[in-house]
Amino acid sequence: MSASVCLIVNPSAGGGKAGRVAPEVERALYEHGLEVCRTDTRDLSHARELAEEGARAGETVVVLSGDGMIGIVADVLRHFPGAVLGVLPGGRGNDLARVLGIPQDPIAACAVIADGVPRAMDVGEVAGQAFVGIASVGFDSDANRIANEAPAWLGNLVYAYGALRALCSWRPARFEIELEPPGERIGFTAYTVGACNSRTYGGGMRAAPDALLDDGLLDVVVLESLSKLKFLTKVLPKVFTGAHVQLPSVHVYRAAEVEISSDRPFTMYADGDPIGDLPVRVRAVRGAVSVLVPTDFAGESAFASPVEHTTGG
Fold this sequence. Notes:
Elements: E1 4-9, H1 17-31, E2 35-40, H2 44-56, E3 60-65, H3 67-77, E4 84-89, H4 95-99, H5 106-115, E5 117-126, E6 129-131, E7 134-138, H6 139-149, H7 158-169, E8 173-180, E9 184-196, E10 218-224, H8 228-239, E11 250-255, E12 257-262, E13 267-270, E14 273-277, E15 280-293
Parallel strand pairs: 1-2, 1-3, 3-4, 4-15
Antiparallel strand pairs: 5-6, 5-15, 7-9, 7-13, 8-9, 8-12, 9-10, 10-11, 12-15, 13-14
Helix pairs in contact: 1-5, 2-3, 6-7
């Protein structure tokens, strides 16, 4: 790993948290012996430019933001063999950091940038755009939209707020999925269809508790339609532990690609941001990006094969 760091900061992430903590993060990285070039982003296009510049310069490209911008940077880095991504939690959900065993305190997480182990990680892809976590559609489309419009002071509660608000106006939708392989086509009346590269979304909701980050497959999770009362009391609480996948109304499939269509318009959201309108095809891109994980990473089960515990430099 390079001792030179391209630190990309989204100053508005986490309701402004990332911008406020950025000077301390920069100082912590220096104290770990790293050379740091920090830039605050103007927009997503600017973040892409910065990531490409860092990758071309052979720097470790570190993102202090939420998962949405991390996905944007990962989308750039996957086109540069040897590029390394560093993740510092700066958003409201920080789900990728959570799954990778990275501390939720961005200052503490700087140790992973200095001493972490590079690990090959899959990404998901929709219409050429990569995402790192979960792409979902249906009820989740409404919940994500509402959460994104919610006031910043709600913090991590925006996801629960979005779900409850979305439930009030939700009406059943018919979805069809085609899994490749094996080319199986299945129809459901459902709340949500998720194409999951990682395990959690919404600040720790374990939507796909068995998803692996390096198996080249998506966990496709379908929540069939049921009453709003049962959804609220029987399903939603179990999503926080992952126990919902044991319910008869929840189906989990594994596929390298899935095509999703529905009987009415929906926008698919990935890592909290819109990524495409149905119908869409989602695919897993195996080993697309190298990401730093802690040397004492205890979450090996998030990967199909063990982490090699060596020290980066």
